[in-house]
Amino acid sequence: MFLIDDLLFAPLKGVKFILSQIQKAAERELSDESILKEQLLELQMRLELEEISEEEFKQREAEIFARLRAIKEQQLESLHRVHTAESSSIVVEEGGEEYRSGDSG
After folding, report:
1. Do 56 and 42 form a contact (C-beta atoms < 8 A)?
2. pLDDT of 38-58, one tens digit each?
3. Region for residue 104 given its phi and psi (left: phi exceeds 0; alpha: psi -120 to 50; beta: otherwise)
4. CA-CA distance, 27 to 57, in Å (whole number)?
5. What pLDDT score was predicted for residue 43?
6. What is the pLDDT of residues 50-100, one digit of tens each?
7. According to the model, what pLDDT value does residue 41 have?
8. d(CA 82, CA 46)
């Protein structure tokens, strides 16, 4: 019975895996500063080559900077969550060889 269930649900598990990989890739791309910095350089080049107007440049530049700020804020929040006193703990374990009276050493 479990084998039949596994066979029936295998395609769904495959689709779920693929969707999770797509989601991870999208999240990486959305939080990758280097992509946004490349977009800023490209935008600057297009302005200098007069492919876009000054107004369009300012609008798109503001959008990119807003996304960069959002990424920075998200990174700071993640760091803050990791380094808070409530979430950080140190565990000290005692161990090693035991000392018995009468042992030489």
Report:
1. no
2. 999 999 999 999 999 999 999
3. beta
4. 26
5. 96
6. 999 999 999 999 999 999 998 888 888 888 777 665 555 555 566 655 555
7. 95
8. 41
The tokens 């990486």 sit on which residue? 28
Asked if 31 and 74 count as a contact pair (C-beta separation under 8 A), the reply is yes
Confidence of residue 23 (pLDDT cuts 50, 70, 90): confident
Cα separations in angstroms, 7 against 14, 17, 20, 38, 62 = 11, 16, 21, 45, 51
Is 47 in contact with 57 (CB distance < 8 Å)? yes
Element of type H or E holding 30: helix 2-30
Contact 47, 54 (CB under 8 A): yes
CA 101, CA 4: separation in Å to the nearest integer? 63
Structure-block tokens of residue 81: 């969550």
The one-letter amino acid at 6: D
